[in-house]
Amino acid sequence: MPSETESSLLERARAGDGEAFGRLVEPSLGMFYGGILRILGEPADAQDALQEALLTLHGQLHRFEGKSKFSTWAYRVCVNEALMFRRSRVRRREDALEDFLPRFQDDGHHKDMDTLLAWSQEAEALDMAQHSQLRVKVQEGLALLSDDQRAVFVLRDLEGWDTDEVGRHLGISRDLVRQRLHRARIGLRGYLKDFAPGKATA
Amino acid sequence: MTLLLTCSQVTDRITDYLEGATSLSLRWRMRTHILVCPGCRAFLRSLQRLPDLVTRALSQGSEPPAEARAALNGALAHLARVGQPSDSVANREGNPLAGMPPSE
Fold it and tell me: Which residue among A25, A56, A94, B43 is the one 20 to 30 A from B63 at the CA level?
């Protein structure tokens, strides 16, 4: 159930009031942008895609029936737009993860014990400087994935879509979803493993 | 594959394991390995923790970044130029959501 102000803003926006539309989307703007940026990886692309998404959203306002929260519905439109945008641009097909895949001894056992787990459990307590180091590190890690891997990882692990849904949207089989998800998770995990919060710029 | 799996074999199939996409017998052998192997247990738990960690790392403050504001301003300027909402989408070439209504 939308709040009183939200529904009156909706009504005015549907009638063509641009200012009302701006106020309607403004509270969720950061969330929309964040979702698009995770899929596209490039701030400039994300800005273009968000602008397109907002125009699409504006044109589709009459389809919103109030069954879900407006921001939830609108976020979904933004993610769709990012996926469309992704199809139209030059793709990065290969990842750059080779150095970050797990290493094993000759007998097939793990070479080193895991450090990611230890520090990630403390991640709630990171201060602002450490948090921004972590953000940079995660963004770097995502950038090492191929576009296809990043899309699968973001939709499956960050957006929480199920495997079938991801496959349908990207036009690939479930096996391929799992394959790309695996490479993305393993690679990203490996990239973050050696990160020591607070020590990166010390 | 022999009955006893190595860590490397477990790692190779760990996503299939988490997604429930292995045969029952492989699932059982992986589970046994993970039970007795601290390295693989830590590896598995770190993978399970990854989505939350990445989400938290990327979470923005309450202020939307400059790019997001610029996109909104661009969209509003476009709407001011073209006028009515019913025209704006139809007039743009290749409307990406044509025939693809978002589900609620």
Answer: A56
Strand partners for A104: A110
Q: CB of A145 within 8 A of CB of A182?
A: no
Phi-psi region at A82: left, alpha or beta (left = phi > 0; alpha = psi -120 to 50): alpha
Provide the mean pLDDT of chain A: 88
Interface test with B, best of A37, A54, A155 (most B CBs within 10 A): A54
CB contact under 8 Å between B85 and A139, yes or no, is: no
- What does the alpha-carbon distance between residue A26 and residue A136 come to, in Å, rounded to a whole number? 26
How does B62-98 read in b/e, with b if 16+ C-beta sit within 10 Å?
A: eebbebbbebbebbbebbeeeeebeebbeebeebbbe
At B104 the pLDDT is 56
What ipTM goes with this model?
A: 0.82
- The answer to whether B96 contacts A56, with C-beta atoms less than 8 Å apart, is yes
Q: Is the pLDDT of residue A170 over 60?
A: yes
Measure the CA–CA gap between A114 and B12, rounded to whole angstroms.
17
Please say whether the beta carbons of B52 and A133 come within 8 A.
Answer: no
Give me the residue label for tokens 């939830």.
A72
Residue type, A189: R
CA distance B36 to B6: 12
Which two three-digit tokens encode residue B34? 């993970």
